Amino acid sequence: MYYYSLNNYLKERFGEKVYKISLDGGMTCPNRDGKIGYGGCVFCSNGSGQFTAKGLTIFEQIENGKNLIKQKTSCSKFIAYFQSYTNTYAPTEYLKNIFTQAINHPDIVAISIGTRPDCLPEDVIELLAVLNKIKPVWVELGLQTSNEKTAAYINRGYSNEIYSDAVCKLKENGIYVVTHMIIGLPGEYYEDFLYTLRYICRSGSDGIKLQLLHVLKGTKLAEDFLSGKFRCLEKDEYIDIVCKLIRHIPKNIVIHRITGDGDKKLTIAPQWSLNKKDVLNSFNKMIKIMNITQGDAI
Q1: Cα–Cα–Cα angle for 94, 133, 18, nearest 5°?
Q2: Which of 50, 66, 68, 80 has the largest CB neighbor count within 10 A?
Q3: Distances (CA, A) of 77 to 1, 47, 66, 88, 100
């Protein structure tokens, strides 16, 4: 095993392959509605989760997702992934209702909640801790970068300290944490990526998602890209960076993703990223050629 992938972790934990079902909890984001800012992060088109089935109940969304997945596989276990926007940005009673619906579904083995570290008040963390006693609860935090200058450019809206504090509180309550990191943000280079990676690993995060920067239509990032203010990474560059970074990730941290693909209708660049199968094949080939193992540089 060259690296500790999400598939490996899920098979260890649940005894078989498990699929995520993306859900829409009906929330927005404090970085969009004016509480802390407007427009969201510069790379965000309409919030993450363009692939969710909007307008349906949580049960209906789960059933819809199951049916789509079962057209390709005979799997029987699923993770309810609350993906769209900020999924703890609502009254606690509302969150209790939608999360309980998901966690009580017989085919759901865990719930994963994408949110911001500045949207985790004590009562919400207490709720997550209670639910975590029923089935595993994961919280996914979009740090993206530990470079405060870059964080200001992307309009992240919170400091590194808030992220670190959120991870600490979640871990104190036994909740599994996954941190998102973007590779290729304007003005950042390998040293910046490595610094962010090490920062995440030191934070106590259980998992990490490595995400290629995508330029999507209708974003501030697209304006800067089209005006020539920065360029996107080429495929070989990205794969080389990821291979090097993996060597610095402790063996106990699960790598939930080594790339990502945006909505084909919205993606301006890099176009090579839209062929995810080719990217993954190229990565797996390179990691074998280079004989890289997770954590071998620590």
Answers
A1: 90
A2: 80
A3: 24, 27, 9, 24, 17
Looking only at the bridges linking them, the beta strands covering 267-269 and 215-216 are: antiparallel
For residue 61, the one-letter residue type is Q
Q: Are 294 and 247 in contact (CB under 8 A)?
A: yes
The DSSP result for 24-70, as a single string, is --S---TTTSSSS-SS-STT-SS-S-TTS-TTS-HHHHHHHHHHHHT
Residue range 238-267: mean pLDDT, rounded? 95
Q: Report the pLDDT value the prediction gives residue 46, as an integer from 0 to 100.
A: 66
Q: What stretches of the chain show up as alpha helix (H) in DSSP?
A: 6-14, 58-69, 92-103, 122-131, 148-153, 160-172, 190-203, 220-226, 235-246, 276-289
Distances, alpha carbon 63 to alpha carbons 56, 66, 70, 244, 293, in Å? 10, 5, 10, 40, 38
pTM across the whole model: 0.96
Is the bond preceding 106 in cis, omega lying within 30 degrees of 0?
no
Write out the two tokens for 286. 């390179």
Q: pLDDT digits over 152-202, tens only? A: 999 999 999 999 999 999 999 999 999 999 999 999 999 999 999 999 999
Packing angle of the helix pair 122-131, 92-103 (nearest 10 deg): 20
d(CA 144, CA 125): 22
Crossing angle of the two packed helices 160-172 and 122-131, in degrees rounded to 10: 40
The rounded distance, in Å, linking the Cα atoms of 128 and 110 is 12
CA distance 218 to 107: 37
